[in-house]
Amino acid sequence: MSHFDPLYSVAGLFVGLLVGLTGVGGGSLMTPLLVILFGFHPATAVGTDLLYAAATKTAGTAVHGWRGTVDWRIVRRLALGSIPATLLTLAALAIAKDRAQNVGGLISIVLGAALVLTGIATLFRERIVQALSASFSGIDGSRIAGWTVALGAVLGVLVSLTSVGAGALGMTALLVLYPRSPVSRLVGSDIAHAVPLTLIAGIGHWSMGEVDFGLLGALLLGSIPGIILASLIASRVSDRVLAPVLAVTLTVVGIRLLV
């Protein structure tokens, strides 16, 4: 367990503000900060961030559930794919660790690629949705269900390896698959699905000794006030300003991790 460092809470505050303002998952921001800025091992950064996400998104799910903005059918479909994929990915990581393979290097590469994809999805979300939603609008319900399960499986692998994917990537795909659903219900469904996904993945990393609870507490100490503050001022800040800045930042960080 690391010693308490106020800079960890400052990082949590920064990420909490951006998540509250943009809606993009904290993993896209927190994990690369822990790896690049603070020098944590990629596996420790991912494991700690997963439990951090599970704690914060549980509160978000409670709010969305109370407001009726969760489509539990979509959540079940996503979980049907993500939970088995998460368990298989964790098992593969444990085997690789036992064989002393370079798990950190693999995580850095996958994390970098996931961040670049997240940056693209954030910057061009509207164009991607407009281009693809028409193709999916005429597909029957059973095929949409199958695509949703497949999406869950992809997210399970990505989130277990990098803690990135459930936010911008998952939401972009859901907007394509369910163009007639209200955006608020898709956001609530995405957040609700992230709770069991990040919790199971986080517990798996914890069992491998890859969670720093001192760091986790410091991050939550900063992020909770940040999210509250951002929710109060979000309506005054234009997404047209924030989304491009965030997208470019994620892309640059992703390329940095890849090279």
Which descriptors would you attach to this protein?
259 residues; mainly alpha; 11 helices
Q: Main beta sheet, described?
A: none
What is the global morphology?
globular
Instruction: Please work out how many helical segments DSSP would assign.
Output: 11
Structural class computed from helices and strand pairing: mainly alpha
Say how many strands there are: 0
- Helix fraction, binned, reads over 70%
- The low-confidence parts are none
- Gyration radius over CA: 17 Å
What is the mean pLDDT? 81
Helix-strand topology string: HHHHHHHHHHH
**What proportion strand?**
under 5%
Span between termini: 29 Å
Describe the protein.
- This protein starts with 5 loop residues before the first helix and ends with a helix.
- Helix 2 (27-37) packs across helix 11 and helix 4 (72-98) packs parallel to helix 9.
- The protein is globular, with a radius of gyration of 17 Å.
- The mean pLDDT is 81.
- By secondary structure, the protein is mainly alpha-helical.
- It has eleven helices and no strands.
- The protein has helices spanning 6-22, 27-37, 42-67, 72-98, 103-123, 125-137, 141-162, 168-177, 183-207, 213-233, 239-258.
Write the layout of secondary structure elements.
Blueprint: H1 6-22, H2 27-37, H3 42-67, H4 72-98, H5 103-123, H6 125-137, H7 141-162, H8 168-177, H9 183-207, H10 213-233, H11 239-258
Helix pairs in contact: 1-10, 2-3, 2-11, 3-7, 3-9, 3-10, 4-7, 4-9, 5-11, 6-8, 7-8, 8-9
